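UvrABC system protein C
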Amino acid sequence: MDTPDLEIQLKTLPNQPGVYQYYDKEGVIIYVGKAKNLKKRVSSYFTKTHENGKTRVLVKKIVNIKHIVVETETDALLLENNLIKKHRPRYNVLLKDDKSYPWICIKKERFPRVFSTRRVFKDGSDYFGPYTSGKTVHTLLDLIKGLYSLRNCNFNLSEEKVEAGKYKVCLEYHLGNCKGACEGLETEAEYNENIKAIKEILKGNFKDSLSQFKMQMKQYAENMQFEEAQKIKEKVAILENYQAKSTIVNPKISNVDVFSIMSDESYGYVNFLQLSYGSIIRSHTLEIKKKLDETDLQLLELAIIEIRQRFKSNSREIYAPFKIDLGEDVKVTVPKLGDKKHILDLSLRNAKYFRMDRFKQMKIVDPDRHTNRIMAQMKVDLRLSEEPRHIECFDNSNIQGTHPVAACVVFKNGKPSKKDYRHFNIKTVEGPDDFASMEEVVYRRYKRLLEEEQPLPQLIIIDGGKGQLSSALKSLDALNLRGKIAIIGIAKRLEELFYPNDPIPLYLDKKSETLKITQQLRNEAHRFGIEHHRNKRSKTALNTELETISGVGEKTVVELLKHFKSAKRVANAKLDELEAVVGASRAEKVYNYYHEK
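Tokens:
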């Protein structure tokens, strides 16, 4: 599918946080931005009148929009920063500086220091972040210093120098902020236990530390030190909202290409994320048309070769959802847990959203292709021998056996065909018997279609479990239609699909389009049946009360309802008003009935 018009692209953007990229007619990125809601933010560019001349020029030059969906606003902010630094779009001039976000470093040394930095070095030290708020970094460092006694000097505390007594404890030791590692007053093992706990805090596993902080806050409050308690309360609030990790930037992951695939009956969608020094610098999704029922593995192998050539990627490592043979020069990793798995999940998330956008665009641009895809998918999902272009669904409605009715709704090409809907009043069944009612209705429906030589559906759906399905099958047997039309039953509670002569129900994926259309059919049949049942019941109730009045016949009831429009208005009418419609004798009988009552 070619790049759709801007108007269609705007209509199909997701309501998710992410980063959007604007391209001009030469295919060059001219602007990168972040959004809490991609659809609202990007649409605002084209619906508002911009006072800023630069923005007006930018909007005129936009030909194509790409987006990367992420989980949080924080991730969107960091990804925006990465992409601007990589691509340097001409309309992002305000952000073309070398600003970098703060990290917390645990230095690789004896008695490690813990401090904030804006520069990441590959020296074996542990870096946590990046953080979008300096306040969060200071709060974390304050929390760590409040819980653990750490050194903040820059001395080289090698074993030889400490044993030689080269250093003396400073004021920090006397204030209780340090345990005097420089004089050997604290063992390396004790210090490293604290560092281990600090790493857990920075990873987000600070449950124990938070509980200690809250106890401290409680003690301040009990001692009437409310200002101190409030300060800790603010820090606790920041930490509880603090997001420990970003999927977008991870210094442990170096230059890597990440690939994931999402596919359906006709197409495969391969997403590519390019990471440079732990930062995502590119995202691209490729749509591949299936020709010979290729597997995901085959499609991914083809896509990886093409994408790496197109973007001139020389990365020696690839993350993929399954093992792929790309030769000895490239290492293929299949992540199962942790940061690598998170980045693969992000890639898959973008492949899914790309596929959803394509479906929405397809509905607008090429509705036939959209319908064909859904029909092909339903055929596979429901294990049918042909595509269900014409589906009919039946539902019974009765309340304690009164006014039993049934409804048949018809879907053609996955959409309601309301002119073909039919109501049925149950004729041969006494009392509340859903099974017998279903048998009668299915028999009447298809006997008539056969007599009138109308086209039969490819699929019948029965609202109910095994019992209703068996009853419907009796009617198909009687009409010699068993095997000519596929028939299934859908049970309400667990959305189980029952098939003839199969005791084990089929469960569809809760998010699948096949289940959604099946549920829509069932709900529409239920609504249509209840509507008919309600109309019949209310009509009967109206007529019954007026007809019980002695000396008042059907003709009088019709005249009264025609004039007063409802039984309630008849009941509230004055005697002279009734006389004007049905004469003095009958008016008196109606008036006396309601007023004596």
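The chain has 20 helices and 19 strands.
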